[in-house]
């Protein structure tokens, strides 16, 4: 019979903490990088220029259609080798490019949620397309985009557990390594599940709080 | 002969296989008010939106103060600063207060200073009875107030003409009068105006010409007294019969 021994958790707390911090750091960096990528792709997506819009659609569809695991492998073993990225930056690049496709869709949806009359009113007053976007459409779209962007961060925290396959020592890989040396798989994986849950759940509560605040405004 | 503000020459347009404008030609002289009336689907909105290039056209030409609206070489943004546009749905900018709405284009398009634009905006808002609303946000205003702000926003650019597409259609009946009063006030300043409207008594009162449209064609262009007492076409008679007996 398997006898629980939670001592393995207590003894390795600093290790878990390090893993959790790395997970947060990678996710946050990937999010920060994916915002300009996604904003650019999203703006191209709503462009009236068919070629630009098509290229952006290709980016979005391709990276939404490839499993993240495969993408991480490809970046690590192909792009990473060519550019000498190493596992840490390969992981961040992979997550950022992947997440960028989703951010692009968030940005597109945010822009398309603004009634067409807003762009028309702005253009009617003599603004250029860029001015109308900058002064009228985007400030309104920004409010619509913030909540789904925050959710994207939660998704990144969970998806980032895949970077362990390219040997980035995140929370998941710490778990794998600990199980390999201590054989305490039930304790370790249970605890790690709880840490992921605490990170994502507290974040989503935090987001909900801010959403309530902005509704009240 | 009076100076021509807008010249519409053989303009046609289709949406797919639907011909929405069929070889329309007429001139709108400076300082006159033209009312476009006709059944829904007649092409009134399409025509009025073509006047400032919001809609493209397939054939013909529209000249605004002698400048071809749909010519690729035309600086359309510059041309539009002379053409105010007020639509049925107000389209105020919800993230800006009333003052922000009215000063946005003067500051960013006409490069007026904030202070100058602000003073001008307050004067216009005052003339429309909105002086105390300068710091309100659109969501806090009634439909009638919102539409008057939209008119103020158009006036702030000092346009040479203003186009209205059913400015009172989205309003509750008790709010229509305040908006019509604002438009009336503008007409009295000699502003060139095109007004798409279903308000027949208003059209009769303020406009120089009724442009009656049906299925993409202009059937008659007549002074209002004549149009309402003795319409030339059978279709117009029918339309008036329906609308006046409701
Ligand atoms: N963007 C569009 N695409 C396809 N059909 C349109 C579009 N806009 C208007 N139409 C059609 O063109 C016709 C004229 O419309 P419109 O100019 O809005 O008429 P009105 O303003 O007189 O009611 C209608 O049959 C309408 O359904
Ligand atoms: Mg219409």
Describe the structure.
The complex is a heterodimer of chains A (217) and B (246). Helix content of chain A is 83%, strand content 0%. The mean pLDDT of chain A is 93. Chain A has a single domain (13-216), classed as MetI-like (MetI-like fold). Chain A is mainly alpha-helical and 217 residues long. Chain A is elongated, with a radius of gyration of 21 Å. Chain A contains 9 helices and no strands. With 246 residues, chain B is an alpha/beta fold. Chain B folds into 2 domains: 4-82 and 162-245, Rossmann fold (3-Layer(aba) Sandwich), CATH 3.40.50.300; 93-159, no CATH class. In chain B, the strands form 2 sheets. Chain B has a 6-stranded mixed β-sheet with strand order 6-7-8-3-9-10, with helices on both faces. In chain B, helix 6 (173-187) links the parallel strand 7 (161-165) and strand 8 (192-196). In chain B, helix 3 (98-108) packs across helix 4 (114-127) and helix 5 (143-155) packs parallel to helix 6 (173-187). Chain B is globular. Chain B starts with a strand and ends with a helix. The model of chain B has no long low-confidence stretch (mean pLDDT 96). The chains are: A mainly alpha (217), B alpha/beta (246). Chain A binds chain B through residues 115, 117-118, 120-128, 131, 135-136, 139-140, 143, and chain B through 52, 54, 77-78, 80-81, 83-85, 87, 89, 91-95, 104-105, 108-110, 150, 153-154, 157. The complex binds adenosine-5'-diphosphate and magnesium ion (MG). Adenosine-5'-diphosphate binds next to strand 2 and helix 1 of chain B.
